[in-house]
Amino acid sequence: MTSELLKLRTVRTWWIAGAGMAGVALLMALWNSWQANTFLRPFDEYLAGAIRRPREDLSTEQVEAMRTVWETHSDPSRIATSLYTSGQPLGLLLACLLAVLLVTNEYQYRTLTATFLATPRRARVVVAKLVAVVITSAGLWLASTLAAMGVGVAFLSSQGTGLQLGSVDVPRAILLNLAAYAIWGLFGFGLGVLVRSQVAAMVAATALYFLTSVVVAFGFQAIHDLVIEEAWVLQAQVLVPGVASQIMTTPGELFAGAPPQWSGAAVLLGYGLLAAVLGTMLLRRRDVL
Length: 289
What we know:
By secondary structure, the protein is mainly α. The protein has one domain (2-40, 75-285). Helices cover 79% and strands 0% of the residues. It has 13 helices and no strands. It has helices spanning 2-10, 12-39, 43-50, 60-73, 76-84, 88-108, 112-118, 122-159, 169-194, 198-226, 231-235, 241-249, 261-285.
């Protein structure tokens, strides 16, 4: 375990990733603050800024739909959660990619054989790598959270809404965000073992992340609107890892009829454990020469 942690401290990739993560989280928190500012206005001001035609031209149903959106997104605890977890969209992918690098670097530079010769008990090596993955993911989460909270605290204080840290939803979302980072790291570990090529593994991880969070979610919506107009079709999106990450860290409903937070956490945990177990079994038995 000591050697794996030494790699984290001495290789510049991890420090650059942490600094980059903090910068991205800072920018995303500033963007989320700008968006939150529109929802913290009175409804009439929000409506005037959100539409390009006179209110009189809107039907009662349209106005009520806009009011529902405003009421949902103007909740201070929801805004605080969005701000404090601002780095998540990129952070989860980065945690996955760094875990891929941790494994595939060994294949690329042919150091895994020497590692196993020095430590014949492969299980110890695998456990050490898993611990390193979790620590790396937690470090990214910490860099992201500190940067995002700096912006969030300043913005919420200026708005007089309070920091919302006393609300159960906000600290829970922050901790669930930590769990999401760790689970995506474990997923990257498993992917790195399955796909030995570093480039192929990183491309696969990126494609899986964005496709499962955007394209597949769009597909579920299309099926619901055009084929099966049942609530369970939209709820089934929780089976997609990218969507599950968002559901587990969003207080209330991510979308109309979305399943509860615990379901997203359970699905993502299942993927993480499956990847970690499969990767461990392969790494213990596979010939690395």
